[in-house]
Amino acid sequence: MPEESDTDRDLLPRSEVAGWEAIRVNARVVWALGMRSIRQTFRRPQLMAPIVVFPTLLLAIQTGGAGGAVNLPGFPPVQSFLQFMLAGAMMQSLMLAGNSGGIALAVDIEMGFTDRLFSAPIPRYTIVLGRLAGTAALGLFSSLWFLAIGLIFGAQIESGVAGALIAIALVTATAMAVGGIGAAIALRTGSASVVQGLFPLVLVVLFLSSAFFPNELMIQPAKAIAEYNPLSFVVEGIRGPIVSGIDATELAEAVLAIAGIVVLGLVLSARALRHRLRVG
Amino acid sequence: MPAIVVEGLERSFGEVLAVQGVDLSVEEGEIYGFLGPNGAGKTTTVRMLTTLLLPTGGHATVAGHDVVKQARAVRATIGVALQEAALDPLMTGRELIRLQATLQGLPSAAGKQRADDLLERVDLVAAADRRVGTYSGGMQRRLDLAAALVHEPRVLFLDEPTTGLDPVSRKTIWEEVRTLNDEGTTVFLTTQYLEEADQLADNVAIIDSGRIVAEGTPDSLKTEIGNPHIQLQLAAGSIAAAEEVCARVGKLLPPVDGRTVLVEAANGAADIPKVVRALDDAGIAVESLELVRPTLDDVFVAKTGHHLEKRVPATSSAPANA
Amino acid sequence: MEAIVTQPQWRANLATIAALMARAKNELLRVPGAAIPGVLAPTIFFLGLNGVFGALTQLNGFTTGTYESFIVPVSMLQGAGFTGAAAGVNLARDIEGGWVDRLLVSPAPRWVLLAGTVLSASARALIPATSVFIIALALGAGWPGIDGLLVTYVMVAAMAAVAACWGSSLALRFKSQSAAPLMQAGMMGLILTTTAYAPLALLQPWMRSVAEVNPVTQVMDAARQGFIGDVTWAETWPGLLALAGLLVVLGAWALREMRRTAV
Predict the structure, then answer these.
(1) Predicted confidence (pLDDT) per residue in B177-231, tens digit
(2) Chains in contact with chain A (at least 3 beta-carbon pairs closer than 8 A)
(3) Which fold has domain B223-304?
């Protein structure tokens, strides 16, 4: 137990200065690591492309193939299937971004770069936060991308600019939240190929949510799982402003779900960090 | 008939001319060494001669067949062991040799027999049924060499066969090459190691920046350059002073590292006393002194102005480009 | 020194193709867990598509009762596309690692080397196809009959060959594994811009136009026959013709790239 509290302290600032000064110093570290993470992401388009291109391809295929769904009895009133699907495409993209952020962190671990960071006098959380900055940037980019695609192909954002901003904010926040889980897995396993192997899981989790179809019209047992899947709440929160008005309850549920994922990510990351520092 | 004839061979990659007008001829039964630093164009030349790369100029024949127009005939007569040992880590050594036998068109029973014979020849019988991924670097090279011999090729191409190997493995490969040559195989070997070219090759071509700068037997090349030199090992800090003193009594040669001074000794051992005296007079202590006879590196320096093994440009001696 | 006695060229060619296929199976048998992604992806897609879009069968124009029956061939063909593209990725990896040099320096004809890659992909594609098929049956898809099953499997094997030609062409062109997403995306696009999600009449106008000219639509419809009704020659031959055409075109491209590797 005494061991635990030692490492607990390791997660908190170790600098001699306290209070505002410490926050400023750590913020600068997060900024530096964040910029590196963002630069890494956008400097390699061939890694970025699958995160945006695949979901776009799937969006086109699914709207073209299953677009007749809007005529199903019970389908929520939308302008078009495309308008409905935008949120799902953003979800898919941000989850792939989270997965790829995890892979990047695992590569850093494999290459020993994180050892360099661990031995520096910076608090551990800055390392994870810095990595998440890259994921957030990707999330931001993909939300803008799909909103643009939607507008270009005739979908309207029903709640206008405010709605778009809410969608963008939610997507960016969720990207970070999911990135936290990816980071936790990376820290725990230290293996890029393991994190990459979890990518099919992303698809599974999305299929078991209301990302691609209204929950009420899904088939059991997927329907039951989707009803309680936190990702469904997030998707509805993103979708709401696009297909109709801004609904406070929907928004609150989405934010709560994101918060839940963030907490899960934090807990898993902290434990993974502790494990890594103990195991070396 | 020469085993390999190359005339004006050229290869450019976009703007870069990796091989510029190479001419050479290799007799049957010869070991021909292609010596040069990294990036000189050795591998590019080998890839052209083994039909893996098309020349952008000039032509070449191997075993009487044109490498461009009769590529398949060339492939049937050559054995190749490339710099990146082209092995599959998931296969066993035996499986690999048998696959090579199949690729060469050998019937199944003959392939089996050849595998047994070759594995024994390169001393890999014990490891034959283990996956290649578990082999050491030396074992992988030996396997690669064995695979190249499956169809008893007339001409064997070895691209840097001992790079990265420990001295014992290197000696083993050298012995194998000599044995093959005694059996009549023509060997075209590229290397960046002086000793390898010196020891193995009947004829050596020295290549730098895509051009052949010298060609001949190792002995004739060294005799052409001629002069031995005195190698002085000095304490750190006295190098500059020593260089100045030596330059006054003899001809300085480009340094190889920061702790030795090299002075040409046209008269051999007779030049030693004046150098020692001059340094003694100047109060410079000498840690060790050696009279070094010319090597292929000296040939290289004379032709290109820099050393083969360390790219230090010549300081006082003018590069004599042949 | 005389060359060793070799066998007649046609025999050597067959032996080489067999040996290359034997090598290809090492990927599955000697690397633990290597078969999983190839089997998992199409299966996940099948289950996912079914759970998500299953309600589409309520639309007018759907002649099947169950969505499972409708999309089983989609997932099986997806498995074929994935397997074939993966063969291209493996070839790219072999090129990067220098293994392909060994093949190119040998006197084996180029088409023989290509055939080894393509035929192994065809054989391997039967694994995810079978996995999807069994799961589909368990979930209530109709039994397609022996004739239907045979037609489907033939389509799957040929589609995998098409995908392998596509993947190989890209591998030989770019000589790098970074072309992998293009290999996968290309096949995904080709297979899904067809009557994959719904019958022709229910597709969105732009998708319908694409599906009408996409040869794989014929393949999809042919592979689906047994699952949604009877198998007839009239429905089958367009699929065979489409596959033959794709094989000729993509196979020729792959062969050309294989021959041009020396450039």
Answers:
(1) 999 999 999 999 999 998 899 999 999 999 999 999 999 999 888 878 767 888 8
(2) C
(3) Alpha-Beta Plaits (3.30.70)
What is the separation of C-alpha B296 from the centre of its chain, rounded to a whole number of angstroms? 11
CB contact under 8 A, C99 and B50: no
CA angle A96, A101, A105 (to 5 degrees): 150
B3, B30 Cβ separation under 8 angstroms: yes
Q: B317 pLDDT exceeds 70?
A: no
User: Does residue C1 lie in a domain region?
Assistant: no
The architecture CATH gives domain B4-216: 3-Layer(aba) Sandwich (3.40)
Rounded Cα gap, residues B229 and B293, in angstroms:
6
Tokens of A57: 């391809």
Q: For chain B, say whether C108 makes contact (Cβ under 8 Å).
A: yes
Shortest alpha-carbon distance between residue C99 and chain B (Å): 4
Any idea what DSSP says for residue B134?
G
Confirm whether C158 is domain-assigned: yes
A99 touches chain C (CB under 8 A): no
Contact predicate B165/B8, CB 8 Å:
no
Per-residue pLDDT reduced to its tens digit, A65-98: 999 999 998 899 999 999 999 999 999 999 999 8
Could you tell me where in chain B the CATH 3.30.70.980 domains are found?
223-304
Contact, A233 vs A145, CB < 8 A? no
Question: What is the arrangement of strands in the sheet containing B31-35, beginning at the earlier edge strand?
Answer: B78-81, B155-159, B186-191, B31-35, B203-208, B211-216
Tell me whether residue C4 is in a domain.
no
Looking at residue B286, what is its pLDDT? 87
Out of C2, C100, C105, the one facing B50 most closely (by C-beta) is C105
What's the pTM? 0.84
Domain boundaries, chain A: 2-279
**Phi, psi of B177, deg, nearest 5:** -65, -40
Chains in contact with C, where contact requires at least 3 CB pairs less than 8 Å apart: A, B
Q: How far is CA A15 from CA A11, A30, A122, A273, B290, in A?
A: 12, 15, 7, 19, 58
| Predicted local distance difference test score (pLDDT) of residue C36 | 81
Task: Please say if the pLDDT value at position B5 is more than 60.
Answer: yes
| A and C adjacent (3 or more CB pairs under 8 angstroms) | yes
Please count the structural domains in chain C. Answer: 1
Q: Which of A152, A219, A227 to mutate to test the interface with C (most CBs of C within 10 A)?
A: A219
Q: Testing the interface with A: which of C47, C50, C52 to mutate, by most A Cβ within 10 A?
A: C52
Q: Look at B54 and A22; give whichever has higher pLDDT.
A: B54
Check B108 against C27: CB less than 8 A apart.
no
**CB-CB: which of C103, C107, C263 is closest to B105?**
C107
The torsion angles phi and psi of B50, rounded to 5 degrees, stand at -100, 15
Our CA dihedral for A65, A71, A75, A79, rounded to 10 degrees, sits at 80
Q: Which residues contact C79 (CB under 8 A, 6 or more apart)?
A: C38, C39, C41, C42, C125, C127, C128, C129, C131, C132, C156
Q: Does B75 contact C27 at a Cβ distance shorter than 8 Å?
A: no
The pLDDT mean for chain C works out to 92
Q: Which residues in chain C have their CB less than 8 angstroms from residue B108's CB?
A: 15
Q: Please give the residue range of the domain that contains residue C197.
A: 9-262
Chain B residue numbers touching C117 (CB-CB < 8 A): none
Contact A68 C210 (CB under 8 A): no
The confidence score (pLDDT) of residue A34 equals 86
CA distances (Å), A108 to each of A111, A132, A181, A191, C158, in order? Answer: 5, 14, 16, 10, 42
What span, in angstroms and rounded, lies between the C-alpha atoms of A140 and A137? 5
Whole-number Å distance between alpha carbons of A165 and A152: 18
Whole-number pLDDT of residue A19: 76
Of A168-172, A198-202, C165-169, where does mean pLDDT reach its minimum?
A198-202
**Mind listing the pLDDT tens digit for each residue in A230-259?**
999 999 999 999 999 888 999 999 999 999
- The complex scores an ipTM of 0.88
